[in-house]
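Supplementary notes for students who missed Thursday's class. We covered one full example, reproduced here. Read the sequence, then the structure, then the short commentary at the end.
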Amino acid sequence: MNCLLDTCAFLWLALEPKRISPRAVRAINAAPRRFISFATVWEITLKHSAGKLPLPESPRDWIPSRLDFFQITILSLESEVLFLSGELPQLHRDPFDRLIAAEGIYRRLPIVTADTPFANLGAQCIW
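Structure (token representation):
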């Protein structure tokens, strides 16, 4: 089964793999295809530029290198995902999480995440 990594799962995979649960590691390793959302790229870039997320190099260089290394594809952001993110229950207001949840729901991809708000929004989660 393919999977979608949320921002934390992607960062932990690349920087702190011991933080990922054994079940999530198995799912990532078994997935024929692994994805992240454009929302993850945007979130990492904004947090890095605000000084809240140190990285070994700029996001422009670091993200593509990690995507290539872990064989992860960025999903194109479709307007349907944007619409769906606004239609999800107002249980969680983080726009990045809402976009990633909508992406998982729209594409029928389980999301590798330790964050419970994704499930509250209706996404299938693996952790």
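Commentary. The mean pLDDT is 96. The first strand starts at residue 3 and ends at 5. If anything here is unclear, bring it to office hours.
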